[in-house]
Each structure stands twice: as C-alpha cells, then as structure tokens.
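Annex B.
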Amino acid sequence: MSMAGNLRKVTGLGRGGGLRRAARRRPRVDLSHPARSPLGSSVVNCVTYRDGRRTGARGDLVDAVRRVRRSGEGFVWLGLHEPTTREFADVVELFDLHPLAVEDAVEAHQRPKLERYGETLFAVFKTVCYVEHERLTANSEVVDTGEIMVFLGKDFVITVRHGRHGSLGPLREGLESDPEQLAQGPSTVLHAIADHVVDDYLTVIDSVQEDMDRIETDVFAGHGARVDPGRIYQLKRELLELKRAVVPLDRPLEELATQPIRVVAPEIQTYFRDVSDHLSRAKEQIAAFDELLNSILQAHLAQVTVAQNEDMRKITAWAAIVAVPTMVCGVYGMNFDHMPELHWRYGYGMVIGVTSVACLLLYRAFRRSRWL
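Magnesium and cobalt transport protein CorA: predicted structure tokens.
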C-alpha cells in the first residue's frame, strides 16, 4: 500500500468517508480516555488551520500537508497517542523527522528537553496528575506522570502523548476560540502546551500541599509518635517523582524564552517568559515541600525517641517498686531457723505493711518526678 494509503488508514481522513460517517453518529468525545483512540489507531486528531481557523478541506494527511506547503499559509496539527513504530513510519517520511527524535517519541520515558534537528524543533514535556485517595498510606500513589512530545516545524506540529492523562482536547478547543492567537503559527501550540503542562504542575502541587498538611497535623498531634513513618517516606518518593518532571524543564523553557529559534515566532517567545516564571514558582514550592518533609520526618523520629525514653522510665520505675517485695520475699524465703520476727504472731502483718508502705512511697516519688 502507498504512503498516502497508509496515512488514510491511520488518520481516518480518507476519501472513503468511513470515519466521517462514524463521526456523524457520535458527539465529540475526549479520545484521551480510554488511552487509545476508539477509532482503532493511535491518531487522536488531525486538523489543518489557516488564519487561525480550522479548515474543512477534504482529503488525507498527505493532501493537507501538500495544500499548506503549496499555499505557504497555515499549518497541520497531528495528534497521536502512544503510536507504534509502524504507525509512525509514514509520518516520519512525510515530515522528514530525525530518527533519534522519533525513537524518543515512540519509546518515551524521556527527561524534559528541547532539541533542534535542522528545521524541526523537538520538545519533551513531563505531564503530571494528582491521584485522588481518601487517606495517604505507605503504598498510596500520589503523582502519576506521562509525557507529551512535540515536533514543531514551520507548517506543522505533531504531538505525541504517553499516559492516560494530559488530554489536549480542551487545550485545542481553547486555541480554536482565539483565532488571532492561533494565526501566529505552530509555535502558538507549543506555548499553549508548555503553559498547560506547567499549570498542571501548580495544580498538583496544591493538592500535594493538602497531603502534607494532614501528615503535619498527625505528627504534631498527641499521638504523633504512633504515625506510620512509611506515609512520610511515600510522600517524599512521590514528591521526588514530581521534582523529576518539573526541574529539568527549566532549561528548555529558558531557551525558548531567550534564544532565537527559527520556528518560534518572536511574538510567541515573549509568552514563554511567563511560563518560565510559573515554573520557577513550582520549583520553589517543591523545594520548600522537600525541606518541610525532612523537618517533619526529623520531628517524628524525635517524638519516637522521646516516647521510647518515657516508656523506659516507666518500666524502670515499676521495676524499682516491684524490687521491694521481691527482696523481702527473697530474704524471708531462705528458711533459716533463727530469723527476726519469724515466729512472732504479728510478724507477717508487719512485713506486709512495711513492704506496702515502701512501695507506696516509691510510687509517690516516681509520680512526683513524672516517671509514672
């Protein structure tokens, strides 16, 4: 089958109209959940924009790209979700994508970065999502991560998404509601994605703050020493996962905001500075959370040590009290014939009384010193 035929099959934009008939039978759906497109391929959407508006031109992806390049106006936005190498092959050939960037886009598990391959810009963003839970435990998942890869050219933008969250459907609709902004080209989409990802960071950070507040309240409550330390360690691990998504993005955003890049419009470059500022805020909050968790963990360990010392003092006090009757019983249990008060009528009562008074005095002394 030809490349055009393959793309018709993959994108569902073929002249046969099969997808159009299916689209007329269902309302607009969010193809991000379930993760794979219900249309049977990795393609989430494929749209041509001219003057900031979606065009209704018929044809497949190859025809759309040919029309855009012939007219020199507009761009094509192709959205994919977890494509296989075979599904991505024709797209690679059509847009002349670099093999290293393609490998990263298909395999995923990349750090946030920005790379230039000739006339194409390749950006990787880590997406994050807060996992709702009733109560944080030592096994709770707090932060779920995914990835968005963006191939940016002068007349195209290809988004490759990995993970079951981070849908770009609402973002696409928001951009389409502002044709004037979208008319500035594909770099508008790159900025919108970066802004969307960083806003999600701040949203997740706000949710993590609530978990930290709960742990802090539990630790410094009266039963703080009995708090499971696994909860604190788990939150630190999840915070580290969030940190791995946020911190490496600083350098790519700084480059997008300050370095001249051919495929990024100068007007759009200014907006990346605002995104970079928001990212700095997210980094500062994560660093503050990390320090606070360290302090909470140290406070918890100190509380455990204090509780153990209190327990040892109680054990020692009771052992001292019990030692008095133990000693008396040991002395009078030696079975000597000649012992004081051994055959005295009131000897037993006197020994019991003296032992009880001694134990009571010791108890009062330990109570006064707060050992009991």
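Strands lie at 43-50, 53-54, 75-81, 113-117, 120-130, 143-152, 156-162. The mean pLDDT is 82. Further annotation is deferred to the next reporting cycle.
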